[in-house]
Amino acid sequence: MRIVCKDVTAETLYDVLHDTSYRKKWDTNMIDTYDIGRLTANADIGYYSWKCPTPLKNRDFVTMRSWLPLGNDYLIINYSVKHPQHPPKKDYVRAVSLLTGYLIQSNGANSSTLYYLTQVDPRGSLPKWVVNRASQFVAPKAMRKIYKASQKYPEWKRKHNPNLKPWMFPEQNSLPCINVAELTVQRADSLENIDESGLSEEKTHHSDDEET
């Protein structure tokens, strides 16, 4: 997917996608997110969980994320890993990011374009209507949310640790170091498969945010 952000700089978009404190303000489908530890100056391990429409089970991820400024452009990619201290949780289905990435291209002093590509295995035998809803409505709406959140971010950041950007300044990163030997790539076939294929759309309760 692609969205043109006519009044948002590439750097602001990059900050919004990194700033977990701010994400809690705009990502209404998120249940929790936090950084687990760092691998290098531009790679870390993090956790993210989000709400699925009832009665589907909520999903979560543990991913390795890396990022790279490319002149005036920026790249962020992630994929799922297994961390021994963060196994699958009882009330969640552990989903798998095979490869997810954001490319932010600068269009000048105050404009940018955000590209989003993802290949995700949500695990479970999901009904076709769930897959259709995610691809046709949920993902495009998430892009618009990022755009709107980016418009408000500079004002919010001025009031909340304006100089703290560990994704830009590695010396600010206080996360514990993780040994890469502790990690393995998360394979989808090693996770429990939940059969949710019989759930009907009529019995599903969506959040107000999804319906707007």
Automatic annotation (TrEMBL):
Subcellular location: Cell projection, Cilium, Flagellum; Cytoplasm; Membrane
GO biological process: lipid transport
InterPro entries hit by this protein: STARD10_START (IPR041951), START-like_dom_sf (IPR023393), START_lipid-bd_dom (IPR002913), START_lipid_transfer (IPR051213)
Molecular function in Gene Ontology: lipid binding
Leader sequence segment: none
Keywords: Acetylation, Cell projection, Cilium, Cytoplasm, Flagellum, Lipid transport, Lipid-binding, Membrane, Phosphoprotein, Transport
Protein name: START domain-containing protein 10
